[in-house]
Amino acid sequence: MYLHGTSRINEQGNLEIGGCDTVELVKQFGTPLYIYDESLIESKCRQFQDAFKETGLRYQVAYASKAFACIEQYRLIDREGLCLDVVSGGELYTAIQAGFPAERIHFHGNNKTAEEIEMALDAKIGCFVVDNFYELALLQELAEERDVMVDILLRVTPGVEAHTHEYVMTGQEDSKFGFDIQSKQANTAIEISLQSPNLTLLGIHSHIGSQIFEPVGFVHAISILMTFLNEVRKELNFTARILNVGGGFGIRYTEEDEPISIFEQIDSISSIIRRECKEKKYPLPEIWIEPGRSIVGEAGTTLYTIGATKNIPSIRKYVSVDGGMTDNIRPALYGSKYEAMIANHVESKETEVVSIAGKCCETGDMLIWDCELPLVQKGDILAVSCTGAYGYSMANNYNRLRRPAVVFVKNGEARVVVQRESYEDLIRNDVVYVENSSIK
């Protein structure tokens, strides 16, 4: 398993993260357990900002919190000076409870409810990324009721398909997201926005996909976006102050993945924007991006305890852990691949090839197929790397399993930022009916 961030093998032969021995972490907090390398998250935040500073462009980096959200994570993002991208009332509420500055919050989503929009308006967030005509009208109506002006971006689809798994492609024409450029929906949306008395149109937003390794997709999309903006400037006398090119920067999950550096990605994006603006004599807009996975993905490691094994001669050995698709649904949902190691005896010489099975009552609950590990024993601790994005945030209670705890580690100290769910938590919202009355 590749060692990311502060991860290392200590003198005891155990995996250590953030100066904390993972064996001791398991003794203290149990398994399954999400571990986050706080220093690595901070480093990623600073790399994006430093990369932009080298370009000389005006910019904003907004953390895409759908990758991983909790109060302490939002506080970390605030300390690093990033903005925040939320996509639901729940993420917005968490941000408010974390004390995140509302003016640095951007609200996304393809079906924001009136309740969610009202919460955001009352909080005075910095910007709405409007996704469709329904939302455009609803936002104008609710802003007018409150007699407030609202800053917006329009999400547009440039017709570019990123080279990634089809379920996480979001920039092509056939997408549930955004106003289509090809059919002129985006032109109409800009015209309506400019005529809406309570909306201030700042620019446009585009997101072409996720886990993108090369800048080619961004370059092509930006060329289309700048051509569109140049046409709109001539037709509607609108000049965008902001161009948001989204996120989707890839990370290394396994040796098959070869992402380029953050600095290379930002340099490529800034270079094509400068070139396009120069060719079209278009004023350089402020550039916004929305990294999520690339900030937290590699910082997360999930620890499990190994239990049952099943050896099918000449076919496969299954090794079961005390978690699975309830704490990491990506392998079942996307076919995602991960690396792993035995955290309590990393450097054993004898190895075997096994497949890691989750404990859910589903044949498809498999975390890793055909993984080479030291000889596995009951009670060993399995560490799966790069689970920081879309692990906890997509966790669920299938089979009434409890969501794991989340622990941040840094400089030899560990702190719980999300408590492990209890069995009482599982039935907290159940309603029991007794003699024609309800007891909650």
Automatic annotation (TrEMBL):
Alphabetical list of InterPro entries matching this protein: Ala_racemase/Decarboxylase_C, DAP_deCOOHase_LysA, De-COase2_C, De-COase2_N, Orn/DAP/Arg_de-COase, PLP-binding_barrel
Coiled coil feature spans: none
GO BP term (any one): lysine biosynthetic process via diaminopimelate
Sites bearing N6-(pyridoxal phosphate)lysine, chain numbering: 66
Pathway: Amino-acid biosynthesis; L-lysine biosynthesis via DAP pathway; L-lysine from DL-2,6-diaminopimelate: step 1/1
Required cofactor names: pyridoxal 5'-phosphate
Keywords, sorted A to Z: Amino-acid biosynthesis, Decarboxylase, Lyase, Lysine biosynthesis, Pyridoxal phosphate
Ranges where the Orn/DAP/Arg decarboxylase 2 C-terminal domain occurs: 34-388
Binding site for pyridoxal 5'-phosphate: 248, 290-293, 390
Reaction catalysis annotation: meso-2,6-diaminopimelate + H(+) = L-lysine + CO2
EC numbers, comma separated: 4.1.1.20
Enzyme class, broadest EC rank: lyase
Active site, per annotation: 361 (proton donor)
CDD domains per record: PLPDE_III_DapDC
Subunit structure, as described in the record: Homodimer.
Protein task: Specifically catalyzes the decarboxylation of meso-diaminopimelate (meso-DAP) to L-lysine.
Protein name: Diaminopimelate decarboxylase
Species name: Gottfriedia endophytica
Lineage of source species: Bacteria, Bacillati, Bacillota, Bacilli, Bacillales
